[in-house]
Sequence to fold (278 residues):
Amino acid sequence: MPGRLSSTVTAVVFATMVVPAHAATIQITMENLEISPAEASVKIGDTVEWINKDVFAHTATAKGGDFDVGLPAKKSGTTVVKKAGIVEYYCRFHPNMKATLKVVP
Amino acid sequence: MFVRWSAAIAAVALLSGPALAQGTKPTDPQIAHIAYTAGVIDINAAKQAVKKARSKDVKAFAEDMVRDHEAVNKQALALVKKLKVTPEDNDTSRTLSKQASDKLAELDKLKGAAFDKAYVENEVAYHKTVNNALETQLIPSSSNAELKNLLQTGLKIFQGHQQHAEHVAAELK
Fold:
């Protein structure tokens, strides 16, 4: 019985991790060499979508190496955030473009 | 050092000299030609660097230059087509092109770390010159709003290039 309970708990926890109840898609725009909003709050499991409106290729590259999303001109790209914390990211091609993601559990 | 600076100063003087001397401003077709030429020059320099550079950072910087300047020039071509403007060759464009081909030949003789250093330092000086010309002359002189807007976007991205080049130059020391 305790075994079954713990496996049920595990299954619930696991299911919550894999399919979060309120997974959302947060859109962040890169336009005219600026990232907007420069600070965005997201939850674990949310998808971040960067929309590159420039004619230049950009990237969304986390300083800690969590993600490195290539964004060709006029295209978008996504990543699913997997752990909590403050993630600073920038564009590898235009290092002046910087922004922050606040990932909450 | 003297040669590099005098070339940069000469370029600044040329960009701000003849066209402003008699109080005549460059026309939009001339501005379009100068801006496009300035882009082509940096693309050619970058292509040489992609082939010759030894440092990984210098090569990556050169690849960034090709990518960005080709993107700006593609926009510029689309704009002049839309506006039915024919870019007009002029003394500033001709001088820039001449200086650039001399520079290409000069850099072609260098190898390894010497090439990397000379290329990056020239990129710093060149972007400074072009940014100054954009800021003080080409942008204020342009009359078409879309052309002005494209030049402003160009200035913003080229200022980033200048900082990037300065950073790479500092790392090489």
Summary: Chain B has a mean pLDDT of 89. Chain B is about 85% helix and 0% strand. Residues 55 and 70 of chain B are 23 Å apart (CA to CA).
